[in-house]
């Protein structure tokens, strides 16, 4: 079992990017640039997001990416909550990035960063 601590929200940057896009100060290609790996990870490891894509209105997926020097080659990979739990039990705290991804228009944005720590 693990809990999330130390949340860093990127919601303000998300809202700012959407405003800039709608105002024409950002290009579509600047914000709708999710690569194949990110879209595939969202499809296979992600969960349905609670909101629709701010660009095209289609369904969003939310995917979690894990980071820790102790993870070795597993760092920087998409993982499910169960996999994150096993990693935290194995190596201790890991950083988790929550990213929303639209498979249709390729919108993607880092929503927040948290630290997953074991419950003691």
How would you characterize the overall build of this protein?
The protein has helices at residues 11-22, 28-31, 36-45, 81-91, and strands spanning 2-9, 47-52, 59-67, 77-79, 94-101, 108-118. Helices cover 31% and strands 38% of the residues. The chain is built from four helices and six strands. It has one domain (2-118). The chain is of the alpha+beta class and 120 residues long. Strands 1, 2, 3, 4, 5 and 6 form a six-stranded antiparallel sheet that branches. The radius of gyration is 15 Å and the shape is elongated.
Q: How many discrete structural domains?
A: 1
- Structural class by helix and strand composition: alpha+beta
Strand content: 35-45%
Work out the helicity level.
Answer: 25-40%
Query: Segments where pLDDT lies below 50 for 5+ residues?
Result: none
Number of strands: 6
Count of DSSP-assigned helices? 4
Largest sheet: 6 strands, antiparallel
**SSE order:** EHHHEEEHEE
Cα end-to-end separation: 9 Å
Average pLDDT figure: 96
The general outline is elongated
Rg, please?
15 Å
Layout of helices and strands:
Elements: E1 2-9, H1 11-22, H2 28-31, H3 36-45, E2 47-52, E3 59-67, E4 77-79, H4 81-91, E5 94-101, E6 108-118
Antiparallel strand pairs: 1-6, 2-3, 3-4, 3-5, 5-6
Organism: Corynebacterium lujinxingii
Protein name: DUF5318 family protein
Pfam families: DUF5318 (PF17249)
Which structural traits does this protein have?
DUF5318 family protein, 31% helix, 6 strands, alpha+beta, 120 residues, DUF5318
Question: Would you summarize the structure shown here?
Answer:
The chain has 120 residues and is an alpha+beta fold.
